[in-house]
Structure formats: structure tokens, C-alpha cells
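Something for you to look into today, if you have time. I want to see for myself how the chain folds. Leave the record below and I will have a look.
***
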Amino acid sequence: MTTSYPLNTEQQLQLEQYYYREARLLDSRQYQQWLTLLSQDISYTMPSRSNVQIDNRERGNEAMLSIEHELEQAESMGCPIREENIIHLSVRVERAYKMNSWSENPPARTRRIIGNIEALRAEQEALEVVSNFHLHYSRPGHATTLYSGQRQDRLLPDGDTVFKIVRRIVIMDYAIIEAPTMGLLF
């Protein structure tokens, strides 16, 4: 069983405010400011998910139902949906502001609801945090879509932005994705 890392009320509030600010920046299309929340060494991945059969040899053990069994990582035979670093993310941000960015013209309207923000552990200065999200995506003339999932982050303290995201793993709640785009920043 994974237990929470104890934060005092002020630390928990600071952590939650950080995530709410990040959501506001993304929903306001302030992508360049969002980039300042990221470490230059960021690893941003979104593993694909598969529908695996339950291993009955693990019956009675929580590992039998572990989500980790469903995730396709780069080192496995599968292929992650996203595997990016600061250069990839910077290019994606720059592309949003280009005149020929037709795929986002008119820009999509998004609303992120971030919750269940929980610090799991601290290693030296890094803080391991999980959070859940709902992302409402709307494009004029198209059906709206709701994305949901979990983010597993590693944060380092930073004077300017409180934290820097060093690692983000986005785990979507879907194995079969019928959404119009996975090019969003979660």
C-alpha cells in the first residue's frame, strides 16, 4: 500500500496552488509561461494502455489488479503515446503561435479540473506527487470531449515558481482512444 508523504497544511496548500496555477496557464493558452514551470531536464511521457488479462497466480494480492501491468513503456514492446523532453515541448508551444497552425484555428477551449493532489514521498529535495485530472475539450463546430486520467510528477523546489516539474507521466483512463487529439498538454 502506498501511503501519503506528510505535508503540513501550508505545504499542501502551496502544492495545490502550484497545480491550480498550472491548469490556469494552460486553459488561458499561456503556454510560454507554462514552460517556465518545467525543468530543462523534464521527461514528459504518456504510456499507451493495453487491456491485459488478469494473472490468476496473483489472486489475493493487490498486484493482480495493478495499473502498472497495463502500461506500455518505451523499454517494453509497446510504444508510448508521448515521450518528450523540453525541446519537444518547446516546439509544440512555439507551433501554437504560428500563423500556419491550422489544426488549432480557431483554438480549442479547454478547462482542466485538478484534484486528489497527494504527495507520496520525498527523496532528497524531490517530491513525488500524484494528481487526477478531468480536461474538458471543446472546438467550435465539433463535439466536446472529456479526457480523464492521473499524472505522476516529480517536483523539485525552485525559488521562482515554487517547483519545477522534472518528470511527468500521464496515465489516461482509456485503452482505446477515440478522442479527436492527444496533442494536448495534460
